[in-house]
Amino acid sequence: MGEHIVQLERATKAFALPEGGTITALHGIDLDVERNEFLTLLGPSGCGKTTLLHAISGFVQLDAGKVRIDGDDVTERPPHRRPVNTVFQNYALFPHMSVGSNVGYALDIARTDRKERNQRVGSALELVGLGGLENRLPRQLSGGQQQRVALARAIIARPKLLLLDEPLSALDRNLRQAMQIELKTLQAELGISFIFVTHDQEEALTMSDRLAVLNKGLIQQIDTPRTVYDRPTNAFVASFIGASNLFEGTVRRSSASTTVATADGLQIEAACAGGWKPGDGAAATALIRPEQFALAGAGATGPTIEIAIEQVVFTGLTFQIHGHTASGRKIVAIIAAIRRADVAQAEKDGKVRLGYDPAAVHLLPDDAPAANEAVAGVAA
Amino acid sequence: MGSLRNVGVVGLFGYTILFFTFIYLPIVLIVAYSFNADPINMMNWSGFTFDWYRQIFGLKNTVSENALYIESTEQLLNALRNSLTVAAFTTTIATVLGTATALALYRFNFLGKKFYRVLLFAPMLMPDIVLGIALLIFFVGAGVSLGLKTIIAGQCSFLVSYVFIVVSARLAGMDRSLENASADLGADEWTTFRRIILPQAMPGVIGGALLAFIISMDDLVITYFISGVDTQTLPIFIFGMLRRGIKPEINAIATLMLLFSFAVASLGLYFRSRRG
After folding, report:
1. How high is the mean pLDDT in each 10-residue block of chain A (380 residues)?
2. Which residues of B have a CB under 8 Å from any CB of A?
3. Which candidate, A245, B63, B185, B217, has a CA 20 to 30 Å from the CA of B77?
4. Strands, E, within B29-181: which ranges?
5. Domain range for residue B84?
6. Which residues span the domain enclosing A321?
7. What total number of domains does chain A contain?
8. Same domain, yes or no: B81 and B140
9. Which residues of chain B make contact with A61, given a CB cutoff of 8 A?
10. Whether ipTM exceeds 0.90
11. Looking at the structure, do residues B84 and B35 belong to the same domain, yes or no?
């Protein structure tokens, strides 16, 4: 019995494109999934996250590499002989079967004793809050209820691992948020690992023990949501998770401080408390999250950036201030709604001075995308 | 402006009435005159009678002076029996082959799949008369004596296409992830076919079978070419009767066929609503 519930070794998969050529969906991925962990695979569409999930469930045959589940090499095994179950994106409930038959399907296939089967169907439905709906047809249920049936169906056979393929994407916002908490609770209750695929960063941050950010068939970073958010390993991760202000430039290092000097004349101070410590003259990108900016009062002591305000968006909890520096660089700052008087004043002035804490500035190796691409996250 | 609109509404309403009258009036008349007691002039209503129905089934007539229009009831029943036999065989064969073809094309990708699909559509577009002549030449050339067997084989050659198209349409609307879900829950391919694919294709299969049955019962042109001299199906028998003038029994037979078609169609609708 291995230590990890899932191990991928150099998993590689390329698909042939209909117009000729191939696209590499998995680029030799190594991944260890811990027991009893909630792991989220996050990335833009086409990043390989669904292919990775299918490689585990068996719907995708790897070109090279190995898949182990609970220590067993299952690389060559067809899906129906793997001890995992999946919650599909569109639920994939069998429309011609009742809710009870849907949920009991895995047990019927395994020829489980009738009495035990009915009892387990009942308790699985109970668990997802749909007790007594055995005789309904899937189409008589709401989207949220169908989602729960799919969940009950996937956990009834007590899989070693549950795979969830963007299961919440079809639900409305409130229901989605409620389901996020429920899924997390359910995972703890069942004591099995969940691998959850999504392109929604909020979902990923809310539920995961660990988060794997994928792009172009590679895992860019895998760590706790907080670490991924605070200390992204590269500009892609920084801009994909949360909104970011990225300042690419050259490191100026002295005994007292580290700054990143940008081509347009900004000096961004960084404390370099943890993580990457670049040497003097190295190319680096400084990351400042929008919420790390504060309105700098008259007596501010820390470093500041002055911007001309383009637009102020009120979201209830916060104000999003969109603006640009003298050189035209786009900046986004998020200010707590409690500062409404100061924000109103700044809006009237048309400009504002933003302060930041050098300890909150994170430095990335230089592979930053264009600056306006980097702030795109806020608009979404 | 308002009055112009009203004129439009009235005009459309009138057109709709005319349209449906044109379609259904002849059929209503046939049903009505199948109960007309006048044996000579069908259009002249001379009282209500079940005679023509009795006549069909060889029962004794209440109106004794009626000439015997059907030479023998036996001939009619024989034609009906032939039609039912042919329809039973062709429906079974065409449904099995058409469904299997549709499933194969749904499930697998292979070289020339598009061309294969076109070949399956072609018999539906081909003029009946061309298909009839071609089949006749083929059977005669192959030295097969014409009869029930050639009718069955000949009808199957185009009925498979109808079943294929109806079942394909049903399969096209099917969610492919259901197969994945079934496999994911531990079902092998055969179990997935039996428990997921087939039950979902079933309304299409039943619909295709009913369509094949109706078309088989109804086919005149192609069947006429390949039936030979001794074998008569119901449409051929009725066509033969018509050549000797329109007789009241024909109304009765047509009415019965109409009822039968309704029954089959209702059965189809029933299955659709139950399995939909």
Report:
1. 82 86 88 93 89 92 92 92 92 93 94 93 91 91 92 92 89 86 89 91 89 91 92 88 87 81 86 74 88 79 88 91 91 90 88 89 68 36
2. 175, 177-178, 180-188, 191, 196, 199-200, 275
3. B63
4. none
5. 73-246
6. 243-379
7. 2
8. yes
9. none
10. no
11. no
